[in-house]
C-alpha cells in the first residue's frame, strides 16, 4: 500500500508516489471504498501483539524528529494566474442580427446546403473508394498511389473545394505557399473538420489520423485514399510505428504526398496554442509550419468539449452568408543538431514560430486535459475545472494520466457541493476532522492563491509537494511514537481516540473511532506501524495537518513518553 503509481518515477522529478486510494467524505463513518481489502502484495501484516505486555526499548529517532521535524513541512506552491482554458467555447453570443439571419437561413438555404453537403461528401467518398479499391492495407502503407488511381483523386479534390464553398468559404486567403521540399506540414491551431478539408483542396496530403476515423462513413474512404498513417492513441507501439512511417515517407525517393499533421492532437478554441506532440518532430526532418485563422465576426465553429454540439455548429456554419479563413504558409523549418537530438525542443520551437505569426500565447495543456474534461462531464463535475495544464504537471511532478484521474476522483469526493472547489469545511470533512488551527494551516498550504477555496490544480500540486517531502519516513515514525509512547508496536483504539481528542479538541469520539476503523484494515482492534504508515502514504493530507500541529506545539518525544507513563500510573492507582 505504501508508494503508488509514481513511486518508480519520483527520482527524476523529486515527487514521490501519489496515492490512488479512495477516501470517504462522510467525516463520521467509514465507507465501503475505504474498507476495501488491499491486494495480497500490499496487505499490511495482521496485528498480533499483547497491548498489556512490557514495553520495548524505544526505537531511536534521527534528529529530524522532535523539534526539528517541522523542517519537513511541505512547501507552499507559488500562486500564479490560471492559464487560458483552450477547451471552452468563447464564440460570440447570438444577437438580433444573428437571430434573424439564422431564422431566415434555416427555412431557406440551410436545407439546400445540407442536401448538397450529403451529396458532395458521398461523391468524394465514391471517388476516394475508386482510387483504392482492390488495394491491400500493406500496399497502401508502402507504395504511393499512381496512374489511374491517382487520377480519381482529382475530382475528389475539386469536390472538396465545392464543399468548402457550400459551407460558406467562398474565398480562401493565403500568405506564402507550400514549399516543394516539405515532406511534413504542421498545421495549428486545430479547430474543426474544416481544417483537413481545406488542405485536401490545397494539396491532397497524406496525414496521421486516429484509427477510429477510418471507420467513419465518407471520412474513412477519404482517409484511406490519402494513405493516412493510422494511430491508436492509447497504444504506444502504434505511436512508435507512426513515427517510423513518417520518417520512411520523408526520406523515401518515391513520390509520397506531404504528411499533414495537427501536432496539438485535438481541437481547441484557438486562443492559445497547446503543447505540440513530439511524434511529428521525432524523425528530425524539415517541417513546414502553417498557421490557420478563422476571422469570423458572428460565429465561431470551434469544436471543444464545453460548448455547442457538433450538429449545432454545423447548422450555424451552413446558415452563414459567408465564412472566412486565412492560411499562412511559414518558411520551411530546418531543425538544428540540438533539435534533431531533442524532438520536444524541435516541437516547442516550431510552435513558437506559429504562435508569433498568430500573435497568441502558448500553454502546456495537452490532449490529456481534454480527456480529463470528458471525464468531468461524465462525472457531472464542472468541466472547466478539470483542465489542469497536464503537460506542466507531468514535467514538474511526473504525473501520469491515471495518477491525475485517481486524485481527481478523490477531489470530487471532497467537493460535497459539486462546484469544482473545496472550501475549509469540505476539506476538514474530507479528512474526517473538525476545523481547527492545524487543519486551517494545512488547507492554506493547498490554497496557493488565498482564495479560500482549493481548485483541482492546486490540489494536484499540493499533493505532489506533500509526496515529495524529504525524511517522510521519520515523520511517520515520530507521529506513531506519539500514539505509541510505550513502544508496544501497536496502538489500541482507546489510545488512538485519546490522542486525536487531545490534538483536535473539537473532534468527537465517533469521528476518531471512524478514522481508526479506516486505518485498521485488519479489524484487529489495534494499528501497527505498517498500517499507520500505509494510510499516511495514501493520504498525505494528514501528514501536513500533523506537521502543522507539531510546529505549533514542538513536542519533545522524551517528555511525551514520561507524561504518558505518569498518566497510565495515575489511571491504574485510581482504579
Q: Which range does the strand content fall in? A: 5-15%
The global form is: elongated
C-alpha-based Rg, rounded = 30 Å
Oligomer: single chain
Give, in spatial order, the strands making up the sheet with the most strands. 1-8-7-2-5-3-4
- End-to-end span in angstroms? 41 Å
Largest sheet: 7 strands, mixed
Q: What percent of the residues sit in helical stretches (DSSP H or I)?
A: 40-55%
Query: Which regions have little confidence, pLDDT < 50, spanning 5+ residues?
Result: 1-73
Structure class: alpha/beta
Structure write-up:
- The chain is of the alpha/beta class.
- It is built from 24 helices and eleven strands.
- The chain has a seven-stranded mixed sheet, with helices on one face. Strands 6-9 form a two-stranded parallel ribbon. A two-stranded antiparallel ribbon has the order 10-11.
- Strand 3, helix 8 and strand 4 form a beta-alpha-beta unit.
- Helix 3 packs antiparallel against helix 6 (153-166) and helix 17 packs across helix 23.
- 40% of the residues are buried.
- Mean pLDDT is 79; it is low at 1-73.
Quick recap:
Helices cover 46% and strands 7% of the residues.
Q: What's the arrangement of secondary structure elements?
A:
Blueprint lengths: L9 H4 L82 H12 L1 H24 L4 H6 L4 H5 L1 H14 L5 E4 L8 E5 L5 H9 L3 E5 L8 H7 L3 E3 L4 H16 L7 E3 L10 E2 L13 E7 L16 H9 L6 E5 L7 H5 L1 H16 L2 E2 L4 H13 L10 H8 L3 H14 L9 H8 L5 H10 L9 H12 L4 H12 L6 E3 H11 L5 H11 L6 E3 H10 L2 H13 L3 H18 L1
Parallel strand pairs: 1-8, 2-5, 2-7, 3-4, 3-5, 6-9
Antiparallel strand pairs: 7-8, 10-11
